Amino acid sequence: MRGADSASARPVRRGRLARVLLIGAALVTVGLAYAVLVPNGAMGADGAQSQQIEEGQKLFAVGCASCHGIHAEGGSDGEGNFTGPSLIGVGAAAVDFQVSTGRMPATQPGAQIPAKPPVYTEEEIAALAAYVASLGPGPAIPPEQYYDVSNATQEEVTRGGELFRTNCTACHNFAGRGGALPNGKYAPSLMETSPRNLYQAMLTGPQQMPVFSDAVLLPEDKRAIIAYVVSLQQQRDPGGFGLGRLGPVSEGLWGWLVGIGLLVVVAVWIGAKVPRA
């Protein structure tokens, strides 16, 4: 009986062993097929992106965490005073705009953070943007065709001027030279702003600027506005000083100050030459 039991158990064990070997062989085959068929660039791209995010996290911990928190959750000084907003969900475009224009990292708090030469290189800015983008969904850095206006038509420039005068002149004035706002704030001049940052500013709404999302201004509308602003940047002042291109306002002011000032100087000079009795 024992011999019969052992003989019947052997086929069962062999069957189980065969199934295990078959499953193992199938897994090895699938792994080899994946390694052969999947492009190496896909795995390389994921690895490069992970490395970029890791590098951005290190840069963030050194240069940004003191105000925005170690995990970009927003910061305070321990006494309830707000030091920096949360960056979770702001997207890569906001980081690229703020850091590439030198507004961040800020040198000191104030009503308005001015632009200055950037602190980080382009590679470091890309790493910071990638890290912040990994924390939550937000506007991505736009592709070049969204803001490239090198081949813009006159029709696009004209339409961009109409959109600019409707949406932007209240703060930036009709010539894009900027203007004063309440509480010590101001709309900066657009004469030195790159097309890429013009698009990102409309997309993210930095500081007190409203957000012009795609639901408010379509991508082609943003591109038309950029084409108009670039045309303003390329204009020259053949008559002399532009004086902010405010027309008779600034021209009349300078005429009054210079003209009346010269008359006062001449009157004083004549009075000094007249002999006294």
TrEMBL record:
It comes from the Bacteria. One of its GO terms (molecular function) is iron ion binding. Heme c 1 binds at C64, C67, H68. It holds the Pfam family Cytochrome_CBB3. The keyword Secreted does not apply. Gene3D superfamilies: Cytochrome c-like domain (1.10.760.10). The cytochrome bc1 complex is composed of a cytochrome b (QcrB), the Rieske iron-sulfur protein (QcrA) and a diheme cytochrome c (QcrC) subunit. It catalyses: a quinol + 2 Fe(III)-[cytochrome c](out) = a quinone + 2 Fe(II)-[cytochrome c](out) + 2 H(+)(out). Residues 51-136, 155-233 form the Cytochrome c domain. This is Cytochrome bc1 complex cytochrome c subunit. The chain crosses the membrane at residues 253-272. Its EC number is 7.1.1.8. Binds 2 heme c groups covalently per subunit. The keyword Cell membrane applies. It is found in: Cell membrane. The lineage of its organism: Bacteria, Bacillati, Actinomycetota, Actinomycetes, Propionibacteriales. It is a multi-pass membrane protein.
